[in-house]
Amino acid sequence: MEKQTTNEALAEGFKELVLVQPIEKITIKEITDKAGVIRPTFYNHFQDKYELLEWIIKVELIEPIIPLMKGGFIREGITLIFSNVEKEREFYTHAAKLEGQNSFSSIVQKLIEELLLHYIVSKTGKDAHFREWMTPELLAEYYARSIRFITVKWILSGMMIPPAELALLCETVFESNLDEIIGDMK
Questions:
Q1: Digit-coded pLDDT (tens) for 44-67
Q2: Residue 33: Cβ-neighbour burial (10 angstroms; 0-12, 13-18, 19+)
Q3: Which of 25, 48, 125, 152 is deepest in the core (most CB within 10 A)?
Q4: What are 160-169's contacts with CB under 8 Å, separation 24+?
Q5: Average pLDDT over residues 138-149
């Protein structure tokens, strides 16, 4: 089995298990049994189940939006993230409940921050800053925290808002100042 195929088999087995038990209780043996591989194979691909979860999020949510980001289609990229979460609603609803050191929220934060930092640096350069202290790293962290918060809140509240509408809401919040948003509230 080639590496991508093994990763996909492990991911599918893991996703099936997440639907029936909390991530914290899933064992590597259960994942490898579902995937039809031996336990050492898992460790040839991932350090632990949290690294596997990170790989799933990266492949399903982050990588598909990279071409959109490169083209400057930010809202479309955010819409695609939300749409892909919605397609795997049950898995992401269970995954979003994972807390602690390797929480779903922290994994999403890290991956979005990396994506945004790459995007910002590609537009401004590594040494760019705004008013001396606002570096690309700080800006990427700020927006990643916001996107993470909205994403996790949306998932845990039942994904009631359609992905395109939620992306538009994100864009509006990011592009408006607080007084404008308050003025538009009813």
A1: 999 999 999 999 999 999 999 999
A2: middle
A3: 152
A4: 163/79, 163/80, 163/81, 163/82, 163/83, 163/85, 163/86, 164/79, 164/82, 166/78, 166/79, 166/82, 167/75, 167/76, 167/78, 167/79, 167/82, 168/75
A5: 91
